[in-house]
Amino acid sequence: MINRLVTTTIIISTLFLGGCYYNYMERPRPMKMRCQVPKDRYMESASNIFQNNGYTIVERNDAEGLLMVQDTVEKVAWRFENLIRTWKIQRVADSLTVEVWSVSTRKDGSDVKQTWDRQYSDEIVKEWMRPVMVSLESACGLGSPISP
Q1: C-alpha angle with apex 102: 97 to 106, nearest 5 degrees?
Q2: Global pTM?
Q3: Which of 49, 59, 114, 121 is the right S-S partner for 135, CB 3.0 to 4.6 Å?
Q4: Residue 128: alpha-carbon gap to chain centroid
Q5: Neighbours of 130 (CB within 10 A)
Q6: Comparison of pLDDT for 129 and 22, the residue scoring more
């Protein structure tokens, strides 16, 4: 009876922790929006938005509507070496998909990847994510530059 209880507890704990890891760490969190601005004009606007916010263009393919940018933050929490923030936008027809993730390198050399969206982010993440998202939405004709 005790063996069965211990086994059941271990299985439930493993499933719970696995679910937490899946839901809070590396799960893709694409944000989708409508974008009626012509693709070439939007790609140019998006590139300028990222460059004005200090990001480096890693990959750009105007024909496929793909743009990937990164920046590196050196001043991070005491337990990390650095932080790399990555944005990937994909423009297909009249829709835009935005993915945001960060990779933090710990002092022991291991990496922690976290994905972000409008709902799953704390105030620190929103501080650097919100201005870029508002600008990307405005470039699509959706948002207002005055919106928070």
Answers
A1: 165
A2: 0.75
A3: 49
A4: 11
A5: 15
A6: 129
Rounded to 10°, the helix 123-139/39-52 angle is 150
Strands 66-73 and 111-116: unpaired
- List, in order of start, the domains of the chain with CATH numbers: 26-139 (3.30.530.50)
Specify whether the CB–CB gap between 69 and 9 falls below 8 A: no
Query: Any idea which of 18-32, 66-80, 115-129, 134-148 has the lowest mean pLDDT?
Result: 18-32
Distance CA 74, CA 93 (A): 37
CA 145/CA 78 separation, integer angstroms: 35
Please say if the pLDDT value at position 148 is more than 50: no
Q: Judge whether residue 124 has pLDDT over 90.
A: no
